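Bench notes, afternoon.
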Amino acid sequence: MPHRSLSVLMLLAAVSVGRCVDPIPFLPAETDVVITIQSKQVTESELLKNIGGDLMKLLLKASKQASDAVEASGVDLMKDFDRVVIGVDADKTNPLKPFVLMEGKFDPKKVTASAEAFMAKNPGRITAVKVADKPAYKVAGSNEGETMYTAIISESLMVIAPSEEALAGAFTAAGGDRKPVISKELAGVIAVTKSTAPIFVQAWVKGKFATINVPNEQLKQNLQGVDWVTASVNITKDVALNSVINTPNPMAAQQLSNLLGGVVLLLKLQAVAAAEDQPEMRPVVELLRTVRVNPKEKTVVVTGSVKGADIQKALNPPPPPEKK
């Protein structure tokens, strides 16, 4: 009997894994950063049970069009989906127009009804259109350059796309007729970096640091040698971060580690000062206090953590004391 039970469990596990689609063929060619969120795993954590709703509202503010698409659909990103995969073009972040692949269980008819109700209540913000001869919605921005698209791809998949072309590609991928179009470099990073963390970031960043402002010219030069970065976020009642930065060789890793250590110290001092007037900065202060930067062969490993209680206080600060 025990052997039979074990066999059943293994079969169920295999079926469960098999239901997860490969997100790579869905991602647009311009994708540089991939963020994978295991929604169920995140929502079951002690911390997210308390602040999940507030945190998701805060994150959605990064893209108004994506926020409108989610609101119109009536779905809950953390409750209705098992996994959310986000693709970002690092060269186009103003405005931020992510590609979002949402996988889980939802009722397509309810989503359609919710979208129709949203359109009736908010004329012009979302419009029913056809993309690749399939029903979809156009999500308006303040100008044509901010327009995004969304659609139900299947009974278990929804997509928010930065363009009509990206959404059409997602329809093709859902039919199994699309090979990956992301760069071979990003595909390589995805292939060799793995994590069981509920939130995992993989990015190909070669040449992406050329135009950013950094407090140290030497640091800026060292960053030019970085080609990929990963970051895993583990969530229990607290949050722990582990990031790996890949450099050309061990000497470059040592130099970058030393420079980043100095930057963290500077940021820590600035954050402490800012937190005096901005309570929402306190989790940042606590995170910076725990940050450790160390070289490991040709990589730099950055770790840190922050207490869940500090995050909750930042999201829901107590009212200021009444003046007497």
